[in-house]
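Q: Please design a sequence for this.
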């Protein structure tokens, strides 16, 4: 496939995802989520579907999907079980960093194995004292001959337990001003000195492993410096976050959509005061608001994805999409719970899971407070008098 799919080929992909979700995800997601069990069988199926190479070019074995098609896939999967999207999103950010910024040797060595899912991994950016503020990281990499020696800690790393390889953001020059000029990104495979200290327990986002990674005199071949040049790591990370934010925004749309669908369905089953609750004006107002926000969020995601596909700077568009869609996910999940009444608080109903999963979207890939700052700064920059 090429990066430019026509409508019919896109629909074939979406149809195959829909069939997989109905057959292999929906019947099992609830139990796996409640047990916080890693979905091994679903991961194997995602390999077969090509999701681990979804946005990577065909020359490296990927599907070469546009961000627009990718966002639709993420939305669909998030309607069934949002956790699954994290498994390939973080992985694709790693692969995209290598494809976009890596040397030819790095691409040849890693991309075919990443796109097939033979190697799986993610991005290791966040630290205990540095999340949205990436310039505050402390993990250091010191060049010693033909290796970098790494010491530090990363936390909240998706695929930390089950992944084998990570795009590792480090400080190679602690004296650089501003700090971002002293940051580099390494391709880090698990080896001696690289340990997973613990799995982090979470409110939601169950089934997927979020881990703390410890690096103690961990040695990385110098040839694994992405792009072969120090001081570019911050820009590699930020470049990946644009697609990551589109992914998180699409997840928000999926959660919001499912909350609306569950609310509509329940409102036609539950009766109060002698009539179905969808006949009460109070419920109608809620459903109308939820539906309108779903559509607005979808359009914002589509706009950001189109800008990304066109090669345009889209930090403002991605920020708008991520901010609005994630807030919509939170609001719709709460409204769906209220429409369900007491049943919405029960683990037997999907809305309880949606309510726990939604808040992560307001935090992941940069907090919504930071998204608003990015939006405001871009508004000024693009409209200078």
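A: Design:
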């Amino acid at each position: 496939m090429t990066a430019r799919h026509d409508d019919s080929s896109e629909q074939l992909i979406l149809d195959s995802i829909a069939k997989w979700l109905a057959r292999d995800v929906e019947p099992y997601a609830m139990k796996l989520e409640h047990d916080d069990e890693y979905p091994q069988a679903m991961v194997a199926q995602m390999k077969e579907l090509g999701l681990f190479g979804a946005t990577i070019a065909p020359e490296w074995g990927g599907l070469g999907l546009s961000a627009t098609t990718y966002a639709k896939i993420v939305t669909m999967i998030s309607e069934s079980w949002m956790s699954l999207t994290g498994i390939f999103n973080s992985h694709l950010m790693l692969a995209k960093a290598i494809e976009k910024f890596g040397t030819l040797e790095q691409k040849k060595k890693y991309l075919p194995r990443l796109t097939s899912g033979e190697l799986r991994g993610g991005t290791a950016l966040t630290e205990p004292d540095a999340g949205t503020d990436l310039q505050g990281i402390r993990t250091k990499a010191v060049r010693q001959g033909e290796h970098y020696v790494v010491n530090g800690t990363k936390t909240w790393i998706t695929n930390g337990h089950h992944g084998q390889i990570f795009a590792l953001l480090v400080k190679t020059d602690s004296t650089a001003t501003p700090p971002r000029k002293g940051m580099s990104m390494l391709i880090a495979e698990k080896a001696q000195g690289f340990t997973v200290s613990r799995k982090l327990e979470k409110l939601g986002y169950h089934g997927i492993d979020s881990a703390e990674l410890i690096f103690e005199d961990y040695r990385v071949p110098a040839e694994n410096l992405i792009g072969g040049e120090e001081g570019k790591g911050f820009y590699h990370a930020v470049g990946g976050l644009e697609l990551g934010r589109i992914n998180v925004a699409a997840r928000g749309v999926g959660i919001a959509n499912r909350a609306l669908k569950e609310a509509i369905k329940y409102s036609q089953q539950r009766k109060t005061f002698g009539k179905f609750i969808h006949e009460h004006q109070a419920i109608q107002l809620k459903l109308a608001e939820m539906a309108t926000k779903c559509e607005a969020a979808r359009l914002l995601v589509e706009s950001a994805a189109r800008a990304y596909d066109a090669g345009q700077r889209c930090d403002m568009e991605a920020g708008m999409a991520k901010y609005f869609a994630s807030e919509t996910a939170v609001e719709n999940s709460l409204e769906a719970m209220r429409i369900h009444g007491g049943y919405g608080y029960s683990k037997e109903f999907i809305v309880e899971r949606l309510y726990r999963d939604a808040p992560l979207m307001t935090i992941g890939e940069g907090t919504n407070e930071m998204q608003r700052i990015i939006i405001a700064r871009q508004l000024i920059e693009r409209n200078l008098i």
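Q: Thanks. Anything notable?
A: The chain has ten helices and nine strands. The beta strands are 121-124, 140-144, 147-158, 165-171, 183-189, 194-199, 210-221, 271-272, 275-276.
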